[in-house]
Amino acid sequence: MLIPYFSEIFQKPEPEFAKIPCQGDIFRKEMLKLDVINPESISGWMIINTTCDFAAKKLDFFCFVPIRPLVYYLEKNIDLKKGELKQNLDTIIRNNTFKTFFLPATPLFDEQNDHYCELQYIFSVGVGINFEKTCEKMLSFRITSLKSPWREKLGHLLDNNFSRVGIPEPKAGYKNARDKMISQVI
Length: 186
What we know:
SH3 type barrels, 6 helices
């Protein structure tokens, strides 16, 4: 289902980036075959390294996130209440979460199904000895690219994920204490 707001999210790769991958490029699922992920549950891969790192050839690893059909999310969250599921889907579709990035149905990728990327599941693949040859092989699998400002939005979401400082997980009872503190302030 194509939402008019998203009608211009994808583009053919810009000429100046024809020979290098860019953040937000979409690749066919055959490009990576990993034992840790069910190939039936993905539709492709999105690269998340920053474009400037590709241009400077400063990479040791290419980082990818899986692209999954939106129905996969629905199947995975079948037990959620309808209202909670509706709210979660609204957040995903508006790209207002640091965990996912919504990709609508489009003739450039898949005109039948909406998709999303799980930004917390990052797979790294070594560049290898020859950066140019690795990029050339990888680009043979490129389908499309995100268009501006969508590429920048993806970068913002990823920056938030990568810039976090690790802290311990909250202990049991944290939510109750937090809710109590908030109710005292309000």
